[in-house]
Design brief:
Elements (H helix, E strand, L loop, with lengths): L17 H25 L7 H17 L10 H23 L1 H15 L5 E4 L2 E5 L7 E6 L2 E7 L7 E2 L1 H6 L11 E5 L2 E15 L2 E11 L6 E3 L1 H4 L4 E5 L2 E5 L3
Parallel strand pairs: 4-9, 5-8
Antiparallel strand pairs: 1-2, 2-11, 3-4, 3-7, 6-7, 7-8, 10-11
């Protein structure tokens, strides 16, 4: 026997008929397709490749499969509505990710540049920008023969100069080099050895068969000198930014 303060148990509701459940499922599918159509109209041209359409198709298929819960005999409408909202959000995030994939990649580059100023950021396929370091110099991360090398951009250096440590790390046998090229340094006359690397790149700017000098004495950083900079269309400093532009 229930007490006077206990609420009466609700009467069980009549489950919807199979025809009504099927109608609700069709309406849900149409709503999903309508949402995709609205997003496509809002971002024209964002979905253009077969891979883009594959992602969209996967999302629609998953939502369609989960919407089959509308065909079950006992439907928990609150739970079903929450699930539908979650999947609608997932599809929307996927579509936005496809739409702004290039912008999101640029965001990652910019964040990395702020954390470490030596990483260049691509402004266009042929233009890079490097942020000035705390010491006033421009350090830039490049690759020599596929290995990462951090360079100090030095317009006063006529050559690209590799430190002995960087040269060994990228596979140059410094014991076989002849250090017969004198150069003036802050510590007096230094000697280097002429060498040619298969590739040298900074960001998307890459050159093959690049002549370099391997320094005999230890260096705090390799130098990106004029043999690289002269191959560019232009390089200029604006404020605390260094802009590198390639010819093609």
């Amino acid at each position: 026997m229930s007490g006077p303060w206990e609420a009466p148990e609700p009467e069980p509701s009549e489950p919807p008929s199979p025809r009504r459940r099927l109608l609700l499922w069709v309406v849900a599918l149409l709503a999903i397709l309508g949402g995709v159509r609205l997003l496509y109209a809002a971002f024209p041209g964002a979905i253009s490749t077969p891979q883009d359409w594959a992602w969209v198709g996967w999302g629609v298929l998953m939502m369609g499969l989960f919407s089959t819960s509308l065909l079950s005999r006992n439907i928990r409408w609150g739970q079903s509505a929450r699930h539908a909202g979650i999947w609608a959000a997932i599809v929307a995030v996927l579509l936005l990710g496809v739409t702004y994939r290039h912008e999101l990649a640029g965001v990652g580059q910019r964040v990395r540049m702020q954390v470490s100023s030596s990483y260049p950021v691509a402004l266009s396929p042929h233009e890079l920008v490097v942020t000035q370091g705390d010491d006033g110099g421009f350090l830039v991360m490049g690759e020599v023969n596929g290995q990462r090398v951090r360079f100090l951009v030095d317009t006063g250096a006529s050559d690209v100069v590799l430190s002995p440590a960087d040269a060994k790390r990228i596979g140059i046998d410094t014991a076989t080099l002849t250090f017969d090229r004198p150069s003036e340094t802050a510590n007096g006359v230094g000697y280097g050895a002429a060498h040619k690397v298969d590739s040298l790149s900074v960001g998307d700017i890459a050159f093959a068969d690049m002549p370099v000098m391997v320094n005999q004495a230890p260096m705090s950083s390799s130098l990106l000198g004029m043999t690289f900079l002269r191959r560019l269309e232009s390089f200029q400093i604006k404020g605390d930014k260094l802009y590198l532009t390639s010819k093609d």
